[in-house]
């Protein structure tokens, strides 16, 4: 078979790790990114710089690839749709349109009879007045948020003015879940409807940014099964092709809720690189490129630590890693506060 050229939109750490996995499978990668200093430049075979709505550059990209995927959800629907008219895009642009919008995403999940926290659309400040039942809550922009960006904790309507919120954007108000734990389930679904699923991962956030992920998750059998079943239902209903992650909340009464869906590889799944025979990245490439499916085998328990901002520095130039420790540097040009700079995975026997 002739060599496959995979286009990836987005050049951050996920694009880098996808490119790395592609190389092992002899798949060539072309990254398209709106950042000239994108980290994935260091890992891909070819790099195209352009804005995500720049028609000419996008056409140049389409000409170079056989199939396209993406590493983040905030890509204009029109762009993915245009690409999909000429070369297949996985996951399908219509899926991304649902998931890139927090309201559409929650409506979709609830239609499957899967629990989410209570929520409501907020178009103007006065909408909050009739929604006191949802307080304390979190106000989130319906689009473009990540790592807690565009989110405001709201305890009382009277205090909203002090937060200087720009109500010209669309928001969703979510009732705050009294969290006991957060977990995620990663599943890869293939074009023949078959799938491979990883065991639930336990996640700890600091300042709304993921800090630690580990397997096994310390959860009941009930939650283990329910989270897996819900992830399977979501992937099936979307007719998803590729790797998908479902983030869950568990409350203090052992109720499970879907928090959000990522239509892509996910930070909590970085430990799959070392803890499984096939990583979430390799599985994604296998699925979108229609390569052979390999049965998943867990090799080890593991813990992943995100290195945020200057935390990366002590690991660069350090020779003190143990045999069971794996350090990943995303090679981002600038060290910035609250920015994911790399991660460390520790295998636990
Ligand atoms: P992002 O797109 O930034 O990942 P999330 O909706 O996943 O946005 O929110 C980030 C984190 O903030 C969650 O993982 C959780 O720790 C906390 N959080 C968000 N929404 C809620 C909620 N409704 N109840 C409790 N905690 C929440
Ligand atoms: Mg999240």
Please describe what this structure looks like:
The chain is of the alpha+beta class. It folds into 3 domains: about 5-90, 3-Layer(aba) Sandwich (Rossmann fold), CATH 3.40.50; about 120-175, Dna Ligase, domain 1 (2-Layer Sandwich); about 180-349, D-amino Acid Aminotransferase, Chain A, domain 1 (2-Layer Sandwich), CATH 3.30.470.20. It is built from 8 helices and 17 strands. The chain has helices at about 15-25, 55-65, 75-85, 95-100, 100-110, 220-235, 270-275, 280-290, and strands at about 5-10, 30-35, 45-50, 65-70, 120, 135-140, 150-155, 170-175, 180-190, 195, 200-205, 210-215, 240-250, 255-260, 300-310, 325-330, 340-349. Strands 9, 10, 11, 12, 13, 14, 15, 16 and 17 form a 9-stranded antiparallel beta sheet that branches. The protein has a 4-stranded parallel beta sheet with strand order 3-2-1-4, with helices on both faces. A 4-stranded antiparallel beta sheet has the order 5-8-6-7, with helices on one face. Strand 9 and strand 10 form a beta hairpin. Helix 1 (about 15-25) crosses helix 8 (about 280-290) and helix 3 (about 75-85) packs antiparallel against helix 4 (about 95-100). It is globular and about 60 Å long.
């Amino acid at each position: 078979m002739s060599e496959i050229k995979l286009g990836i939109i987005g050049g951050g750490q996920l694009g880098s790790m996808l490119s790395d996995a592609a190389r092992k499978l002899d798949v060539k990668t072309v990254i398209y990114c709106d950042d000239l200093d994108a980290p994935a430049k260091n890992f891909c075979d070819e790099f195209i710089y352009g804005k995500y709505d720049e028609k000419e550059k996008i056409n140049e990209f389409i000409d170079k690839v056989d199939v396209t995927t993406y590493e983040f959800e905030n890509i204009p629907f029109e762009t993915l749709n245009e690409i999909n008219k000429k070369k297949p895009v996985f996951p399908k642009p219509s899926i991304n349109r649902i998931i890139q919008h927090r309201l559409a995403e929650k409506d979709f999940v609830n239609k499957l009879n899967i629990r989410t926290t209570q929520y409501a659309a907020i178009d103007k400040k006065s909408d909050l007045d009739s929604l006191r039942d949802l307080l304390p809550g979190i106000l989130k922009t319906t689009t473009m948020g990540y790592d807690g960006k565009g989110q405001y904790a709201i305890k009382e309507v009277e205090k909203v003015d002090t937060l200087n919120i720009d109500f010209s954007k669309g928001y969703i108000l979510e009732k705050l879940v009294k969290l006991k734990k957060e977990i995620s389930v990663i599943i890869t679904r293939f074009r023949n409807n078959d799938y491979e699923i990883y065991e639930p991962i336990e996640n700890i956030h600091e300042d709304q940014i993921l800090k630690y992920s580990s397997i096994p998750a310390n959860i009941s059998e009930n939650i283990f099964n329910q989270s897996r079943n819900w992830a399977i239902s979501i992937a099936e209903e979307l007719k998803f092709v590729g790797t998908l992650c479902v983030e869950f909340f568990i409350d203090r009464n052992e109720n499970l809720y879907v928090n959000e869906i990522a239509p892509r590889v996910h930070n909590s799944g970085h430990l799959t690189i070392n803890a499984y025979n096939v990583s979430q990245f390799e599985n994604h490439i296998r699925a979108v490129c229609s390569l052979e499916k390999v049965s998943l085998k867990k090799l080890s328990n593991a813990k992943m630590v995100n290195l945020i901002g200057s935390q990366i520095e002590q690991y660069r130039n350090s020779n003190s890693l143990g045999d069971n420790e794996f350090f990943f540097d995303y090679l981002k040009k600038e060290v910035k506060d609250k920015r994911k700079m790399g991660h460390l995975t520790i295998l636990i026997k």
